[in-house]
């Protein structure tokens, strides 16, 4: 296929738009493989500064560019000023490296980081001149695929994709590209190609699955056409160290979110919080060894020139060798002003000790997630943290010199009562008291507790996947109640927008009927919905209404345990039996231990997927 | 301990002229780290690289000879330092020269006040003479007020333009060479001057590209010299 650069047309626009560095390419680490015969473009459905640091895309970019004769590029959604200029000039969405239109690539791969980016997928496809729906695409169009966390319930966006990769794509993308190239070489048409791809493990081809209806026209599950598998089981990498690409990550010019070296130290978290989708879908825990982490951090800092490294994962302080890793890094980075950061901390003194190890004088603030205000509710969600743990941890942090903590909490968890909401107020009060008493009198004025409250959204593949989300007016009422019980002085209270949570709830567990809604909302002007100033709930309500879909019936309906679920043909490896058992235990307030500390609790991931928990040593309980 | 003050001249060219000053600062700091130069760090709670930049270039303006002082804790041959920096930099933001300068020399940001600009103008049938007279008319006003980000700044043109602008034709347009004296309270942007020079109703010409050819240090005695 011929691919021509549109750069000469793009360049004059850059004097007229905000932040032109979004569109420049030429960053350190950007790969230019214009001569490769197979070309892929990885698209993040938001702006450059939001998507650039996405670790999954950075890894896939490196992996694809390491394959002989394959070139991978990047694309982001241009901000509204730029897309208006591009539409006016007839310039299609282009990939950064070659500035070639993305419609001329062989493969266009989107990541699905969170539900509120769905309209941006359509914005990108439309700007690219690629038909929005897979069914409308022909042999001259690229394959448009998706992956990422939201792929575990792909149904709301299934109509827009030719294929969806379920689970970890590190190896799956290589298999996918190999099969696609073979299909191109064999001259297969689009449908025949998709049939081949549907047989690659972890690949879901929506067009080969039909929705079944019962006698009343209700949803009765999804059935696969031969030879597509009835259930698509997620891909999972057994050893993170094995196929790690050695190339240097892209270092942006622009001040992007997470502008630092990110080093993944482990994958998965089995603490077993029952509301947490990530904890269920990324099982089992696989740690990378301390030697490997230290070696790669040093190499990554040297090749990027970053002055900060973040040790990322769902729970980095759970790594069995985290203390060794931090001590070794600290020793080697003592000169040169390079700092190490941890994204989140365990709620215990060990967490604070680790934070002290990396803080080296600058103590900006610590973040903890007790999630719920009462012990009863924390037992329901399996958050094995007591109020005493939290207060001891806070005391230690303030004694060590920190003056700010941030607490993550939720309202709307299953079984929550007004007492639990009031419990949040008591907990915040207790934290504030502990923080003040641990702080020297002359510094007490600077003690701040930030409280960030989100509304619980039940997610697919979790023990709470059958639970109703609390309705919008109830969210507002509980927020009011909370506002009245949380102390004012010394506390910064912030909310997750109730309407956004409501929409997330509909997309998290909705089915294929939502594709029309997303398209209608986009046609009505919705895009960049994750940007508060761009989000307009009226566009969405109008879209739901015009499509005859009731979002409340999706988000706030109690499901029965046996009923078919829209994501029933997608498996995270965690068995439905385990999920329903965990739900039972939740309702009786029975905790379940973490299998990376205490032995298998029978979620069935390990045996079925041929993987196992991989630790560098014994974990510290 | 004394630092070694390595003065580096670099270019900001091609599409990277669209970088902001802050982006250039970060990019060069990262290049210094990638080059493994023994840079000094400030003392205190959050130590950072000791580095001092010359006057900022706006987004969209290229620079052929921009300057930065990198403070090193150990001596590295200037040729070696330059070589390592070049290897660690993208082509359009690459160092071109490096040499040590005395610590007592004034800071670049304050001392480098004379800027040589080359502005390329495009316009249907626009002649050299038209540009020349448009510029003469605006300079004759003696003062120019410019609005930028909601603020109005008034420039004393004889002070801001220490030399008479020079206009010449080149392939594909007309080139204006300007010498601008920059000030602590903001500097006259060449595109602002040219936009003011052209009649807003007819807009006979538009600024296509602006390049800062060099910045010079003006001594108290009024003598101009290159920082390197
Ligand atoms: S199968 Fe057992 S050991 Fe493996 S992740 Fe699940 S609970 Fe943990």
Task: Explain what you see.
The complex is a heterodimer of chains A (621) and B (228). The N and C termini of chain A lie far apart (56 Å). Chain A has a six-stranded mixed β-sheet with strand order 2-1-3-4-5-6. In chain A, strands 15-16-17-18 form a four-stranded parallel β-sheet. A three-stranded parallel β-sheet of chain A has the order 10-13-14. Among the domains of chain A are: 7-233, Cobalamin-binding domain (Rossmann fold, 3-Layer(aba) Sandwich); 364-513 and 549-571, Transcription Regulator spoIIAA (2-Layer Sandwich). Chain A contains 22 helices and 19 strands. Helix content of chain A is 35%, strand content 14%. Chain A has 621 residues and is an alpha/beta fold. Chain B has 228 residues and is an alpha+beta fold. In chain B, strands 1, 2, 3, 4, 5, 8, 9, 10 and 11 form a nine-stranded mixed β-sheet that branches. A two-stranded antiparallel ribbon of chain B has the order 6-7. The longest helix of chain B has 14 residues, at 21-34. Chain B has helices at 21-34, 78-87, 108-111, 128-140, 157-160, 190-197, and strands at residues 4-12, 51-53, 61-72, 95-100, 112-122, 143-148, 151-156, 166-170, 173-181, 206-218, 224-225. In chain B, helix 4 (128-140) packs across helix 6. Chain B has six helices and eleven strands. Chain B folds into two domains: 4-105, 2-Layer Sandwich (Alpha-Beta Plaits); 112-225, Alpha-Beta Plaits. Helices cover 23% and strands 36% of the residues of chain B. Chain B is elongated, with a radius of gyration of 19 Å. Classes of the chains: A alpha/beta (621), B alpha+beta (228). Bound molecules: iron/sulfur cluster (SF4). Iron/sulfur cluster is lined by residues 270, 283-284, 595, 600-606, 613 of chain A.
């Amino acid at each position: 296929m011929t691919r021509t650069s549109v750069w000469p047309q793009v360049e004059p626009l850059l004097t007229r738009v905000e932040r032109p560095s979004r569109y420049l390419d030429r960053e350190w680490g950007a790969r230019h493989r214009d001569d490769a015969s197979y070309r892929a473009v990885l698209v993040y459905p938001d702006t450059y500064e939001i998507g650039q640091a996405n670790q999954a895309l950075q890894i896939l970019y490196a992996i694809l560019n390491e394959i002989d004769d394959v070139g991978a590029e990047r694309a982001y959604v241009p901000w509204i000023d730029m897309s208006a200029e591009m539409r006016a000039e007839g310039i299609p969405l282009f990939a950064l490296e070659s500035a070639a239109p993305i419609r001329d690539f062989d493969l266009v791969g989107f990541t699905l980081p969170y539900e509120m980016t769905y309209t941006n997928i359509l914005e990108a496809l439309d700007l690219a001149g690629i038909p929005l729906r897979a069914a409308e695409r022909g042999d001259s169009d690229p394959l448009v695929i998706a992956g990422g966390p939201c792929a575990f319930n792909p149904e709301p966006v299934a109509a827009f994709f030719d294929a969806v990769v379920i689970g970890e794509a590190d190896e799956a993308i290589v298999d996918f590209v190999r099969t696609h190239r073979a299909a191109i070489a064999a001259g297969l048409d689009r449908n025949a190609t998709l049939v081949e791809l549907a047989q690659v493990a972890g690949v879901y081809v929506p067009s080969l699955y039909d929705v079944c209806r019962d006698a009343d026209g209700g949803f009765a599950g999804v059935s696969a056409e031969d030879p597509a598998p009835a259930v698509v089981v997620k891909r999972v990498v057994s050893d993170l160290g094995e196929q790690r690409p050695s190339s240097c990550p892209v270092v942006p010019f622009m001040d992007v979110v997470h502008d630092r070296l990110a080093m993944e130290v482990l994958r998965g978290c089995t603490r077993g919080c029952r509301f947490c989708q990530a904890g269920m879908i990324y099982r089992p825990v696989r740690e990378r060894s301390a030697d490997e982490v230290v070696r790669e951090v040093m190499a990554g800092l040297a090749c990027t020139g970053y002055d900060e490294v973040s040790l990322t994962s769902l729970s980095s302080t759970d790594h069995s060798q985290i203390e060794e890793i931090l001590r070794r890094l600290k020793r080697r980075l003592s000169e040169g002003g390079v700092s190490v950061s941890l994204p989140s901390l365990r709620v215990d003194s060990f967490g604070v000790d680790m934070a002290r190890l990396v803080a080296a004088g600058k103590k900006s603030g610590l973040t903890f997630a007790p999630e719920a205000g009462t012990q009863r509710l924390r037992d329901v969600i399996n958050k094995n943290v007591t109020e005493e743990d939290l207060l001891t941890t806070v005391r230690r942090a303030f004694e060590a010199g920190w003056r700010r903590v941030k607490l993550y909490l939720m309202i709307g968890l299953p079984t929550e009562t007004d007492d639990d909401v009031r419990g949040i107020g008591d907990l915040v009060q207790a934290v504030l008291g502990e923080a003040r008493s641990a702080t020297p009198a002359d510094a007490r004025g600077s003690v701040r507790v930030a409280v960030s409250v989100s509304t619980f959204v039940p997610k697919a593949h979790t023990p709470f996947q059958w639970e109703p989300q609390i309705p919008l007016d109830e969210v507002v009422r509980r927020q009011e109640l909370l506002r009245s019980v949380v102390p004012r002085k010394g506390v910064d209270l912030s909310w997750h927008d109730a309407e956004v949570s409501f929409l997330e709830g509909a997309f998290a567990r909705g089915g294929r009927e939502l594709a029309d809604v997303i398209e209608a909302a986009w046609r009505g002007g919705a895009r960049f919905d994750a940007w508060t100033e761009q989000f307009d709930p009226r566009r969405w309500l109008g879209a739901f209404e015009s499509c005859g879909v009731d979002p409340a019936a999706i988000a706030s309906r109690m499901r029965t345990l046996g009923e078919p679920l829209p994501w029933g043909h997608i498996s995270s490896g965690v068995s439905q039996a385990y999920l329903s058992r965990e739900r039972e235990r939740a309702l009786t307030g029975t905790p379940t231990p973490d299998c990376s500390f205490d032995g298998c609790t029978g979620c069935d991931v390990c045996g079925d997927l041929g993987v196992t928990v991989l630790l560098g040593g014994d974990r510290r309980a | 301990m004394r630092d070694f003050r390595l003065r580096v001249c670099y270019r900001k060219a091609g599409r990277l002229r669209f970088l902001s000053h802050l982006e250039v600062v970060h990019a060069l700091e990262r290049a210094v780290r990638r080059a493994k130069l023994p840079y000094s760090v400030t003392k205190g709670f959050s130590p950072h690289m000791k580095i001092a930049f010359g006057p900022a270039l706006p987004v969209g303006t290229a620079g052929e000879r921009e300057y930065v002082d990198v403070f090193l804790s150990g001596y590295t041959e200037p040729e070696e330092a330059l070589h390592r920096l070049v290897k660690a930099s993208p082509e359009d933001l690459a160092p071109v020269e490096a040499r040590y300068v005395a610590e007592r020399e004034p800071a670049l940001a304050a001392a480098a006040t004379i800027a040589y600009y080359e502005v390329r103008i495009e316009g249907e049938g626009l002649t050299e003479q038209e540009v020349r007279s448009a510029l003469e008319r605006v300079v004759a006003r003696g003062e120019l007020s410019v609005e930028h980000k909601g603020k109005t700044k008034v420039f004393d043109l004889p002070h801001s333009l220490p030399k008479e602008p020079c206009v010449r034709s080149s392939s594909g347009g007309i080139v204006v060479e300007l010498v601008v004296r920059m000030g602590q309270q903001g500097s006259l942007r060449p595109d602002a001057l040219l936009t003011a020079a052209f009649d807003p109703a007819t807009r006979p010409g538009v600024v296509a590209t602006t390049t800062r050819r060099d910045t010079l240090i003006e001594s108290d005695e009024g003598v101009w010299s290159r920082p390197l």
